[in-house]
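Quick one: examine this chain and its backbone structure tokens and tell me how the chain folds. Here goes:
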Amino acid sequence: MSRAEALVLTPGAGGGADHRTLVDIETALADRMPVRRHDFAYRRAGRRAPPRAESVVDELLCELPQIAAELDVPPASMALGGRSFGGRVCSMAVAAGAPAAGLVLLSYPLHPPDRPDRLRSAHFGQITVPCLFVSGTRDPFATPDELTFHAEQIPAPVTMRFVEGARHDPNTVAARRFIIDAVREWLEGLDG
């Protein structure tokens, strides 16, 4: 497995890079590696609703080399990910060829609530880097069983962690601590 020298975190569709969980992860990892909380262009422009995921993937593919240069690390040594839509975009970018040390997918939106037929996993078979999924056990965007089943398409090591009782945005202190610990431990495991 590749060693992660930096972490790039992106927000969910309606949120920004200042989301409390992303800030907490950055703070917790400050002594270990640089963490870039990155807003997509639509958020930087002040819009809340994202464009189609595919256009945001293209944007991210163009921006990742600059982010790596600013962090002074090789692109392939950055772990990529984020919350919900942000994690989905990062996973699609990696499936499309973006170099990465791994993917950190928090509350991955496998399907819209109550629409398990509208899966967002067609690209999973093209993901060839280690993946960490951290989701709530009551997340309407993916049950633990659904996520585990569909992640079997990924031809790389997959780690699943579930926040007991949490929904799509685990926001208690205990839930955020669980997420931070899961991310830290997983990143440390990439070193070995």
